[in-house]
């Protein structure tokens, strides 16, 4: 199921089916795509059934699960991070797509089937709709940053545009896809990919890096971009609270108070009135002195814990609470 098109009723129907099949020894897996589209109250529907083993839940999300998922549900699941594809992976995907689109790749050896079941059609230059050279494919695989969707969108846009122009001019669709065609399509493909996946964390990262570098104009630009994307102002302010401790910290302890007050202000008055609050806080953080000493020290302590061999040290006797302290706590 997809959380974008499913509701609580669909989950209840799946629970009923799973319970009926469990009577015959069958196990059920519920795969929920875009699980972050369910709010945290809706996600409670999974809890009792995950605990009792009615079904195995597999959720898929492009958002940070620590923020988008119910903590109770997240604690009962295991998080797997899917890493970016390598350049060779994307090149393989592009070659498969070109074969399916009746295209021809020049200066590249014909790929052999992975197994006997896989049959790959080989097209000659004469009956192909378009041709593309190996260097262009390699360039596209390098610039898509491990995102096959961006690469495929760019390829498709370039092929459609070039074959359409060729058909209008000469009446046939045998066209040559150049590097310039791909460059132009990549710009459009990135926009399409961002709209489809709704990954605003790239703009948050740009805002964070601009504040860290002390660039006021860049910081305000990315702040305006985030607000234009209709992001929750409280979430924006929450990121500023994090920046105030991570990058400014003890160099200006007042920065944390400014960021926290901004978050409460955004919560009280909302958009569009709170835009000035976010802008003011952003500029304050840009101008404030920077220090990452607390952040680095905390990471060093975490590293010691993770690299500890054997059991973790016990609390020394002289540092433990006595009975009166325990009652007070």
From TrEMBL:
Residues 215-323 form the MgsA AAA+ ATPase C-terminal domain. Keywords: ATP-binding, Nucleotide-binding. The keyword GTP-binding does not apply. GO terms for cellular component: nucleus. It comes from the Eukaryota. Residues 128-212 form the AAA C-terminal domain. Pfam families: AAA_assoc_2 (PF16193), MgsA_C (PF12002). GO terms for biological process: DNA synthesis involved in DNA repair; DNA-templated DNA replication. GO terms for molecular function: ATP binding; DNA binding; enzyme activator activity; single-stranded DNA helicase activity. The keyword ATP-binding applies. InterPro entries: AAA_assoc_2 (IPR032423), AAA_ATPase_RarA/MGS1/WRNIP1 (IPR051314), DNA_pol3_clamp-load_cplx_C (IPR008921), MgsA_C (IPR021886), P-loop_NTPase (IPR027417). This is ATPase WRNIP1. It comes from Ooceraea biroi (Clonal raider ant).
């Amino acid at each position: 199921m997809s959380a974008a098109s499913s509701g609580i009723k669909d989950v209840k129907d799946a629970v009923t089916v799973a319970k009926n099949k469990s009577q015959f020894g069958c196990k059920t897996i519920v795969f929920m795509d875009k699980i972050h589209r369910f709010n945290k109250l809706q996600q409670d529907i999974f809890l009792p059934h995950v605990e009792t083993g009615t079904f195995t839940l597999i959720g898929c999300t492009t958002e940070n699960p620590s923020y988008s998922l119910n903590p109770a549900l997240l604690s009962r699941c295991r998080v797997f991070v899917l890493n970016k594809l390598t350049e060779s992976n994307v090149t393989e995907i592009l070659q498969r797509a070109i074969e399916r689109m009746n295209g021809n790749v020049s200066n590249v050896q014909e790929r052999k089937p992975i197994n006997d079941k896989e049959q790959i059609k080989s097209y000659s230059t004469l009956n192909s709709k378009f041709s593309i050279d190996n260097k262009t494919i390699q360039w596209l695989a390098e610039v898509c940053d491990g995102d096959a969707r961006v690469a495929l969108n760019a390829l498709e846009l370039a092929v459609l545009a070039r074959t359409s122009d060729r058909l209008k001019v000469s009446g046939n669709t045998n066209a040559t896809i150049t590097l310039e065609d791909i460059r132009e399509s990549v710009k459009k493909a990135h926009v399409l990919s961002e709209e489809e996946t709704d990954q605003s964390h790239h703009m948050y990262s740009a805002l964070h890096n601009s504040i860290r570098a002390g660039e006021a104009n860049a910081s305000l630009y990315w702040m305006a971009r985030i607000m234009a994307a209709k992001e929750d102002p409280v979430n924006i302010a929450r990121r500023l609270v994090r920046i105030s401790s991570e990058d400014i910290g003890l160099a200006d302890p007042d920065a944390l108070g400014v960021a926290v007050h901004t978050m409460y202000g955004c919560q009280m008055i909302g958009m569009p009135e709170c835009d000035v609050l976010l802008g003011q806080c952003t500029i304050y953080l840009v101008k404030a002195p920077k220090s990452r000493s607390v952040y680095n020290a905390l990471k060093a302590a975490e590293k010691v814990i993770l690299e500890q061999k054997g059991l973790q040290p016990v609390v020394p006797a002289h540092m433990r609470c006595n009975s009166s302290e325990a009652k007070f706590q």
